[in-house]
């Protein structure tokens, strides 16, 4: 197991290097430092002197890859590529274009994102699986057909409808929770309850429909017919046979959601005023703060690779046929 984990971590290094190089190319070759300076200064203040001052202030006045004026190792380290890209591997994210420390911002904002994403993640999976199992129990009946119709309707509704509808109904009309905002010192659960509820409800349509398809595929297998022929109850078949054998595709789908546990949700955090990483990312895109965007892309890549490794490891726990060699 340890050798497998080490090997997968070593495989992750060239992937991260590739993502880093691609991100650097997009930000500094396609979009030059002069373009960044112009977008930050605005058309009214764009002059050659202002652009040069902005590049000098933010460290964009150096060569991209090789500094021919510097000697020794500084020829490689005193470059934009090293200061803005290579140092990300040491989790040195530097400062944003506005002068804020990105590492401090990330470490502070990750907790509100986790406070929303973790319960939404766990409750969403639990609710979707329970609803799908209930529908599969009555497969082929009128309840099953109506459930599929409801799932498709829920999938067709825009995510913004759930957010705005939840704010209007639960917060404004019923006045059960605040419409938006976040106060970690004063009953923070009141600010998190509605975003979590919206996240769970909005995912029932697509999630339950997908799990239903997985369970129906397993329900037609020979081992299920054998268990039923031996007199096993439907509850026993669902939870002791169908659910365990459907865990591999379930785990594969779950891994895609793991980065969102830390990265947050752009729309949820923006509409509800939650100071998490999702709103942090959206604000940086809106203000064209490229330093923050680069850092968040790198963090997202690391989280996704970690999720893939955890998924491969969990395969051995749910399927004895899988071995880590």
Give your account of this protein's structure.
- With 325 residues, the chain is an all-alpha fold.
- The protein has a domain at 124-282.
- It is built from 17 helices and no strands.
- The mean pLDDT is 84.
Largest sheet: number of strands, sense, barrel closure: none
Q: What overall form do the CA principal axes indicate? A: globular
Number of strands: 0
Structural class: mainly alpha
Order of helices and strands: HHHHHHHHHHHHHHHHH
Q: Helix share of residues?
A: over 70%
Would you tell me the overall average pLDDT? 84
Binned strand content: under 5%
Low-confidence segments = none
Q: How many helices in DSSP terms? A: 17
Radius of gyration: 25 Å
Span from first to last CA?
Answer: 8 Å
């Amino acid at each position: 197991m340890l050798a497998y984990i080490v090997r997968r971590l070593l495989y992750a290094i060239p992937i991260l290097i590739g993502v880093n190089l691609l991100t650097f190319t997009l930000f500094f070759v396609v979009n030059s430092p002069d373009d960044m300076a112009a977008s930050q200064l605005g058309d009214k203040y764009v002059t050659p002197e202002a652009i040069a001052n902005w590049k000098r202030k933010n460290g964009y006045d150096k060569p991209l890859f090789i500094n021919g004026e510097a000697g020794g190792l500084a020829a490689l380290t005193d470059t934009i590529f090293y200061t803005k890209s290579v140092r990300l591997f040491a989790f040195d994210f530097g400062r944003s274009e506005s002068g804020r420390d990105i590492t401090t911002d990330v470490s502070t904002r990750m907790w509100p994102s986790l406070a929303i994403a973790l319960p939404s993640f766990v409750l969403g999976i639990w609710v979707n699986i329970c609803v799908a199992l209930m529908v599969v129990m009555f497969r082929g009946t009128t309840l099953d057909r109506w459930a599929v119709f409801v799932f498709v309707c829920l999938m067709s509704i825009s995510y913004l409808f759930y957010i705005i509808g939840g704010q209007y109904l639960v917060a404004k009309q019923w006045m059960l929770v605040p419409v938006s905002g976040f106060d970690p010192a004063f009953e923070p659960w009141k600010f998190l309850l509605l975003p979590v509820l919206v996240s769970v409800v909005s995912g029932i349509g697509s999630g339950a429909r997908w799990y239903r398809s997985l369970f129906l595929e397993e329900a037609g297998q020979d081992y299920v017919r054998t268990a039923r022929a031996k007199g096993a109850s439907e509850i026993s078949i669902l939870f002791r046979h169908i659910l365990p054998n459907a865990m591999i595709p379930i785990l594969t789908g779950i891994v895609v959601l793991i980065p969102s546990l830390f990265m947050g949700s752009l729309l949820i955090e923006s509409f509800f005023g939650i100071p998490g990483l999702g709103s942090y990312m959206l604000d940086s895109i809106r203000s064209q703060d490229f330093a923050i965007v680069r850092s968040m892309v790198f963090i997202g890549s690391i989280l996704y690779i970690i999720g893939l490794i955890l998924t491969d490891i969990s395969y051995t726990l749910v399927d004895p046929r899988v071995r880590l060699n």
